[in-house]
Design goal:
The protein has ten helices and no strands. The chain has 207 residues and is an all-alpha fold. Keywords: Cell membrane, Membrane, Transmembrane, Transmembrane helix.
Length: 207
């Protein structure tokens, strides 16, 4: 990949990562509940899903999903339902158990955090459609495809990790003081719960 083309890819990748979405909300939620350092597991889970999306597009399966209303809608509604489920669960969490909940979540297994991040990103078929439109801009058919897809994926993943961890997860640290009181915990649970539900509804409604 030419350096000028890679720079364009890096710029586009940064713009995509800074756009708030389910991944950003999940990252901030993990940072608040499990801590800044442990939020990296959720971010890595999201990147694993991103790699799956790129592989789907690279293998041509994305064309099938994008052209099949049934397949697209099944995945879209499954993703929306999962986000709404996460939002309702967080919204209904009991503020009276703020300290206990914080302690439990701070000890949540890394695999659990990773798995949640993976499903949040994977169950978003719009990402497949997006990559179908995005990747051709940076892929040259006359050059080795495997190498180009490897560079594209590595660049997007690296940028997204940096943005998610050092921007969204770090920004959540400023709200950490709210988790020390029942009232603060309730406010944060309501806010992030509503955000998760809103993103889920948007995912289901926007075509």
């Amino acid at each position: 990949m030419q350096f000028s083309l890679w720079l364009a890819l890096a710029g586009a990748g940064a713009l995509i990562s800074f756009t708030p979405g389910a991944g950003a909300i999940n990252t901030m939620s993990n940072s608040l509940n499990a801590g800044f350092r442990r939020s990296i597991w959720g971010i890595l889970g999201q990147q694993a899903a991103l790699i799956v999306h790129v592989l789907i597009v690279a293998l041509g399966v994305g064309v099938l999903v994008a052209s099949s209303p049934l397949a697209f809608n099944v995945i879209r509604y499954a993703g929306a339902a999962y986000l709404v489920y996460l939002g309702i669960r967080q919204f209904l969490s009991k503020p009276s158990a703020a300290q206990e909940q914080a302690a439990a979540l701070s000890n949540e297994p890394a695999w659990s955090i990773f798995r949640r991040g993976f499903w949040v990103n994977l169950l978003n078929p719009k990402a497949i459609v997006f990559f179908l439109a995005f990747t051709p801009q940076f892929i040259r058919p006359d050059q080795p495809l495997v190498t180009q897809y490897a560079v594209l994926t590595a660049t997007i993943v690296a940028i997204d990790i940096l943005v998610m961890w050092f921007f969204f997860a770090a920004a959540a640290k400023s709200f950490q003081r709210f988790t020390t009181t029942d009232q603060g915990q309730m406010v944060l649970s309501r806010v992030f719960g509503v955000l998760f539900v809103a993103v889920g509804i948007l995912l289901a409604l926007i075509h």
